[in-house]
Design goal:
The chain is mainly α. Helices cover 67% and strands 0% of the residues. Helix 2 packs antiparallel against helix 3 and helix 5 packs antiparallel against helix 6. The longest helix has 41 residues.
Length: 264
């Protein structure tokens, strides 16, 4: 872990040294900041001063202040390496999700060096493996069934005798209805899973706008096509199962026969 931290700190300093000849602060072999080149403009000299201070604050573990200076430098000169440096500070701070955001912006930047992109993509995969999986949405319990009040008005025995008993379904029809309800529920579940895969396919399609590397775009297209094919299959299967369940339910309800009325 210490070796990895040293390597990443070196990447931070390397990013400062290689971003632009006249716009970034670098360190010599002795570790002392180099003065701005004599041909630097006032704005570039300001950026170099900001970068020197940001690296010093990073070494002192004053991460929030270092981030603010890096962002200020990026606002003056939108160099791709500044995005990597901000992500590196967030990672050292322990905010991995924000670090991933800046690393992904660096990879998507058109001026980022190919070697640096590959290194950052590998780091992105390592950080994603460290993040906990998203927690599932809590399932709300069903509402309680209403209970008859003890103070509700009661009818006399004669009115109860005159009221016909509710129709009872034969045992076979009850089984049909249960089977129909089960198929309806299963069909709805399959359709919901299909909707999830459809959403995944749409997400892969939206990712294409932010991807610049050919391999990443091909992988996103392949995953999107796979998710779309699975979604179509699940939609068809879920529809068939739901229709079968609805048919069984209707058949069981039509076959119900009313029971004879009670006699007083």
């Amino acid at each position: 872990m210490q070796r990895s931290s040293r390597l990443l700190h070196g990447a931070l300093v390397l990013g400062l040294a290689s971003a632009a000849p006249r716009s970034l602060a670098a360190r010599g072999n002795s570790g002392a900041p180099l003065p701005p080149p004599p041909e630097s403009t006032p704005a570039e000299a300001d950026v170099q001063a900001l970068l020197r201070r940001a690296v010093a604050l990073f070494d002192a573990k004053r991460f929030d202040e270092a981030i603010a200076l890096f962002e200020e430098a990026y606002a003056i000169h939108p160099e791709a390496n500044y995005l990597f440096n901000i992500g590196r500070v967030y990672e050292e701070k322990g905010d991995l999700e924000t670090a991933l955001t800046y690393y992904e912006r660096f990879v998507a930047h058109p001026e980022a060096a190919p070697d640096a992109k590959r290194m950052t993509e590998a780091r992105i995969e390592e950080l994603r493996a460290k993040l906990p999986p998203p927690s599932p949405d809590p399932i709300e319990p069903p509402p309680p069934r209403p209970r008859a009040s003890d103070t509700s008005p009661r009818t006399n025995d004669l009115s109860l005798a005159d009221t016909p008993a509710p129709a009872r379904a034969p045992r076979g029809n009850l089984r049909l209805r249960i089977g129909g309800y089960s198929l309806l529920g299963g069909g709805a579940a399959i359709l919901a899973i299909g909707a999830g895969f459809a959403g995944a396919a749409l997400a892969q399609h939206r990712r294409l706008d932010g991807l610049t590397m050919l391999e990443a775009r091909d992988d996103a297209i392949r995953r999107g096509e796979q998710s779309s094919l699975i979604a179509d299959s699940l939609f068809i299967a879920g529809g068939v199962v739901a229709i079968a369940g609805l048919t069984l339910t209707l058949v069981s309800l039509r076959s119900r026969t009313p029971a004879p009325a009670r006699t007083p």
